[in-house]
Amino acid sequence: MRRSLLPLNALRVFDAAARTLSFAKAADELAVTPAAVGQQIRALEETLGVILFRRSPKGLELTPEAEAALPALRAGFLGLEESVETLLSGQAATRLAIAVARGALRHWLAPRLETWLAANPSASVRILPLDAPVDFTQANVDLALSFGPPPDAEGVFGRKLADEAVVPVARPGAPDRPVLWRAIEQAQAPPGAIMVSDAGAALEWALAGLGVARVPQTLAAATLAAGELETRGDPEPIAEAYWLCAPAPQWKSPKVRALVEALLAA
Which structural domain, as residue segments, surrounds residue 214? Predict the structure, then answer.
């Protein structure tokens, strides 16, 4: 019999009835009616073509076939329980893999991750660069920090860090040379502009005092608060934003929930 056709629920009922030698006691254990236990046992006997119980003056008795099968059945259930415990222990662990949009590691994630790691000294984190929306069916990651529109892959959900805007920032006294990273701005680049691959690289050029970078406020916030950069104009709201995203089952895992809450609280 193929695994997909194994009548696991009926086998669980059979195990309970075999241990108690009573449909009524098995029903109490499983929180069902004795009639439901009897139906499951009859269905299992019909599926297997084997009689499992006989009535005797002493009550319910196992047939020799049923008695011979019980040790392997119980070993199988024990193996299933151990497998589930292994899966749950893995979700409770603090070994994580995070895919991160370029530029967001140093200027947003790293300071917050440092705080979380200090509070979880046994944790280990693997960081992967993220250049496009992550395919969670292919990538072995627990969480992604992406930049762009809301995640739209089936079954993937995201939490937006903030409504986003780009703000022009530069070192005090730096030249007005534009540092561009968005494709729409690079297509209209004026003479003398510096063109880079991502917002993080643009921010690094601004920190080096080489020009004015229009970068997401989320990335620039810490350097502005520290006085390393100054604004050279007003913020401009944009549709894109930074998102912490993962498939629904991973949002439910304790390790991902704990990390996300810690990152957003920092």
Answer: 165-237
**Confidence band of 6 (pLDDT split at 50, 70, 90):** confident
Q: What is the DSSP string of 234-247?
A: --EE-S-EEEEEEE
pLDDT in tens, 84-128: 766 655 555 578 889 999 889 999 999 999 988 888 888 889 999
Give whole-number Cα distances, 124 to 13, 77, 89, in Å: 42, 33, 15
Distance CA(264)–CA(260), nearest Å, equals: 6
Residues 176, 154, single domain; the answer is: no
> Which pTM value belongs to this model?
0.67
CB atoms within 10 A of CB 96: 21
* C-alpha span between 217 and 236 (Å, rounded): 10
Do 118 and 38 reside in the same domain of the chain?
A: no
Are 185 and 85 contained in the same domain?
no
The CATH number given to whatever domain includes residue 183 is: 3.40.190.10
Task: State pLDDT tens for residues 182-217.
Answer: 988 999 999 999 999 999 999 999 999 999 999 999
What's phi and psi for 255, nearest 5 deg?
-70, -40
- Quick one: which of 101, 95, 99, 96 has its CA closest to 128? 99
In this structure, the answer to whether residues 131 and 254 fall within a common structural domain is: yes
**Least reliable range by pLDDT among 1-10, 40-49, 78-87:** 1-10
Report the run of H or E that residue 35 belongs to, with start and end: helix 34-48
Place of tokens 């080096």: 208
| Identity at 232, one-letter amino acid code | R
Together in a domain, 145 and 70: no
Instruction: Specify the DSSP class assigned to residue 208.
Output: T
